[in-house]
Design a protein that fits this description.
mainly alpha
């Protein structure tokens, strides 16, 4: 999303609101024009919602439906690297879900960085876990193959 896209979408929204107010206030109302302007206005609002654009009041156009879990994702990601690699896939999965919710406008977009960092930590821990399992199986197979027969 580019800053110019947001500016253009906001300008379009304001112009549509002015046109709709003008069409509605005229003595002879053009019902078709009002319906067309209303549809365009709703489509522009939907586009701004998908972009996660802030409104004049500082809140996103779309209602925030869920509280952010980015802190939980970040804590799980860090713990998966430091303490227990089994938490890695959980942090990875929760991070993906949190980023999806942010992209849909269901969660505050300010939590994107923490969710991304936790997700990346989860990916790294998962890779470490897989490498550890492969190394363990390799060492076990090597030890079983070198058994001496008395």
């Amino acid at each position: 999303m580019y800053r110019d896209d947001l500016t253009a979408a906001h300008a379009r929204l304001e112009q549509l609101q002015r046109d709709l107010a003008e069409a509605s206030s005229q003595g002879v109302q053009d019902r078709q024009r009002i319906a067309d302007l209303t549809a365009q206005l709703n489509a522009t609002r939907d586009a701004l919602t998908r972009m996660g654009a802030p409104s004049q009041f500082g809140a996103p156009y779309g209602a925030i439906q869920y509280p952010s879990r980015a802190g939980t994702v970040l804590v799980l990601g860090i713990l998966s690297i430091v303490v227990c690699t089994v938490l890695g896939p959980i942090a990875w999965s929760m991070g993906n879900e949190e980023l999806r919710r942010i992209d849909l406008g269901q969660v505050d977009p300010m939590s994107r960085n923490a969710a991304s960092a936790g997700r990346i930590c989860g990916i790294v821990a998962t890779v470490f876990m897989i490498l550890g399992v492969v190394l363990f199986i390799g060492i076990f197979a090597l030890a079983a193959g070198t058994r001496s027969h008395y």
